[in-house]
User: Fold this.
Amino acid sequence: MAKVAVVGLGGMGSRIARRLIDAGHELTVWNRTAAKAEPLGVPIAESPAEAASRAEVVITMVADPPALQAVTEGPEGVAAGADENTTVIEMSTVGPAAIERLGSAVRADVLDAPVLGSLSEAESGTLSIFVGGDEHVFERRRELLEALGKPIYVGPSGSGAAAKLVANSTLITIIGALGEALALADALGLPREKAFEVLGTTALAAQAERRRPALESHDYPPRFPLRLARKDADLIAELGLDLRLTEAGRSWLAEDGNGEQDYSAVLERITRR
Assistant:
């Protein structure tokens, strides 16, 4: 079992920490709001640097690239507490540029290992984990990652971050396509029940079935908060590529709305138009 530090205890980070505790790893945690760490019943570090100094492996799970810089750089950051014997596993969705910066900031081995899945998958240990970095380092840390889900090695440093953007681009486009299909059905006078029946025969069948209860109840509990979906869409847009479908989906996500709702709440805004 390893000595592990988890830095960032939001919805995903706290569940990742719990999985590792249950797997028998020795944990130290840090969170900007320390009270969120108390229910885990493990040592709480005063800073990310202190957490890293106690650990063989440091896992970061934060919201975006600025948050990653805040917890890894400077005198209180992970880089100040990690050394050449540490493995830093960055599990947030931050894009390849942020991973390159992280690799320059720390003396440690770095794996970029963002996850596909949400709160329930984090709780059950069934996340898909896209891993980039040195393959020997990955093999050394594979067993730890397997406590969280299915790790898939995809290539050198930055490849995991790239893979996650590829995966999330499909979420961005599909949610827009589903909303517009329903809006079209409404405009043509096709009853919503029949519209879902029709969509059940198409490539959108699984997504239509999955999103239907939330759309009908007008309740969107945050499996994947809208603010994070917007952030991921912006990371893709910053690459400057001609991705017209992704940009169309991003345009819907960019609309005003409750950023803490699930990103599927965009369906309601599209159909109301």
About this structure: Strands lie at 3-7, 26-30, 57-60, 87-90, 109-112, 115-116, 127-132, 149-155. The chain has 13 helices and eight strands. The CA atoms of residues 237 and 247 lie 7 Å apart.
